[in-house]
C-alpha cells in the first residue's frame, strides 16, 4: 500500500494517523507550521487538549468527546514523531511502555494476585508499585516525580498527598481551616504594607492551604474549580439572557440589577433540582 493510499484509507486505523503525522513533518513536502514545532511549543496544546476532553465529559457531550479524544491522541502521535526524528523513541515504544506498565501495575488482573481486594487496598498497592518504579529511577525524595508542568492547583494537591504519606500533614480538616483563617487574615491586614510580589506570594500560600483542605475533605481542587467555573458561566449567561429580555446588555446594566438577576437564576436552578 502506497503512502497516499494509506492516507486516504479510512479503515487503516492508527497506522493511517502515524503516516499523516510523518508526512506533515516531512522536511521537504510537509506543512511549514508542523515542521517548525518542538516538544516545548506543542506541550501547551497537549495540556489544552486534555482539558477539552475533561470539558466534554463535564458537559456530557459524547459526540464532542470522540473528537476531543482524537485531538489528544494526535498530541501523543505528534510528540512521538518528533521523538522518532530525534532518535529518542517511536510511537510503538510508547505503546509498549504503557502496556508493560499496566500489566505490572495490575498483578491482580494479569498475574497471580487475588482480585478479592477493596478499592482502597488496590490504591495502596498501586502506590507501592509506583514508589518502587520511582526508586528504580533514583527518585528517592517523597516529592520526586510530581510533574512540574501540571496546573499549579493540581500540582499543589499532589505535592501535599505525597508529603502526607510520610507523615507531614495536619491531623484534621479543622487544623487546615484554622490555617486558612490565619493566612487570609494576614493577607488582608498586611496588603497595604506588602509589595506586589509579596502579595502574590501570600496569596499563593492561601491557595496552597485551600488545596490541602480539599484533600482533607476528599475533594480534588482542580475538578472542584472546573465545576464552579462551569456553574459561574452558566449562571452569568442566565443573567445576560435576563438583560437581553429587557433590551439590555451587561454594559448597560449595573451591579444591583445583575445581582438580582443572578439570584433569580440561582433560585431557578435550585427549584429545578427539587422537581
TrEMBL record:
Keywords: Coiled coil, Hydrolase
Limits of the NTP pyrophosphohydrolase MazG-like domain: 37-110, 174-237
Gene Ontology molecular function: any one: nucleoside triphosphate diphosphatase activity
EC primary class: hydrolase
Pfam family, one: MazG
Coiled coil: 173-200
Domain of life, source organism: Bacteria
EC number from the UniProt entry: 3.6.1.9
Name listed for the protein in its UniProt record: Nucleoside triphosphate pyrophosphohydrolase
Phylogenetic placement of the source organism: Bacteria, Pseudomonadati, Pseudomonadota, Alphaproteobacteria, Rhodobacterales
